[in-house]
Amino acid sequence: xxxxxxxxxxxxxxxxxxxxxxxISGDEDLTVRGRVEGTLELSRGLVVDPGGIVKADVSAxxxxxxxxxxxxxxxxxxxxxxxxxxxVGDITAPRVVILDGAAYRGRVDMSGAPVAAAxxxxxxxxxxxxxxxxxxRPVTPLARPVPPPAPPSRAxxxxxxxxxxxxxxxxxxxxRPVPPPAPPxxxxxxGASRKKVIVRKRK
Amino acid sequence: MAGASSVGVIGKGxxxxxxxxxxxxLVIEGQVEGQVALKNHLTIExxxxxxxxxxxxDLTVHGTAEGDIEASGRVHLSSTARVSGDVKAxxxxxxxxxxxxxxxxxxxxxxxxLQER
Amino acid sequence: xxxxxxxxxxxIDGEISGDESLVIQGTVKGRIALQEKxxxxxxxxxxxxVDARAVEVSGRLTGNIQASERVxxxxxxxxVGDIRAPRILxxxxxxxxxxVDMDVKER
Lengths: 203, 117, 107
Prior knowledge:
The complex is a heterotrimer. Chain A has a 6-stranded parallel barrel with strand order 7-8-10-13-11-9. Chain A has helices at 127-132, 161-168, 187-196, 199-202; strands at residues 4-6, 12-14, 19-26, 30-32, 35-42, 45-48, 53-65, 68-70, 73-81, 86-88, 91-92, 95-98, 103-109. In chain A, strand 1 and strand 2 (12-14) form a beta hairpin. Helix content of chain A is 14%, strand content 34%. Chain B is an all-beta fold. Chain C is mainly β. Chain C has one domain. Chain C is built from no helices and 13 strands. In chain C, strands 1, 2, 3, 4, 5, 6, 7, 8, 9, 10, 11, 12 and 13 form a 13-stranded parallel β-sheet that branches.
């Protein structure tokens, strides 16, 4: 068995009989079922399965711990200790969830946490959707990266396409207003713009 | 044992400065500053605010708590909880959305292969 | 109805203030200043000055009572302290020691 095997996804799995000592860093998701000692620096997610043992300071985008971690955990998004987790160390993340059954000792710092989980303001903008309502075909087809508003901030975006679309009347609406690029917008934006459903553009 | 039978409620328009102690369950919807030492269950409702050292058997927080907390049983911070302080309990649960800053101390049994740090 | 109930096993040592009614079934020492009604139930023990809109005592209270509306001492209560209120009712059986002053301007 390879020391580190890849799952069908892009994630890397450290099997249960493996012991790694040193520094692990990478841009993929990592699942630990064996033992890791040293330092973990990941830009994606870390999952420590039950049975996994990590004796290291961890830095990742997110962490879901069901095994043992002795070390400080720092995550950009969230840290979750499930009911089998046993963790000793400090946790720094804007979102921390500790499930019933988890055992933990350390300091929690959520000072980066938003005080009120407010939904993206974009969703509140009714302007675009008001017109678009008719076809309301959720952009799902997504051939074209839906969120034209993505680049600028979401709120103001709709106002630009809206009038243009209105003019073009419900039908045509050449994809004029749509800025071609539309980089792969973060999921949030996609969701928000789905509401706007600038379906017109698709035509 | 007067535990389960009595439930006290500190309404949201009430402020208490001083110490609260005793048996019975207590629900705080108002404000309490000082010390709280209960033998049973304390609930801090979402509009409640406790700036105090708290000792209780179990604690459920939906509101704000500032101060050290010690519970023999569980401390449950719900999604609307805002807590800062050191918490020591047999079990601490943080729901998604809870905002917590401070230390948590539960009993953690580590596998033999890792001598406690 | 009272929103706040201090249960029979609760002991509060300090100041209670607020704009709600309060029912005391436990023990309170210190000071109570409310804009609503304070009820001291039969088993309650209060060692505090009380300042409220209305005060009704069925238990034990040691302290001065001041009310903007009325004070009622019910049967079997034991009150030691001065009372100031525009209306005062002392029921048969009430045990009271102190002075009474009803010369308070009604609002």
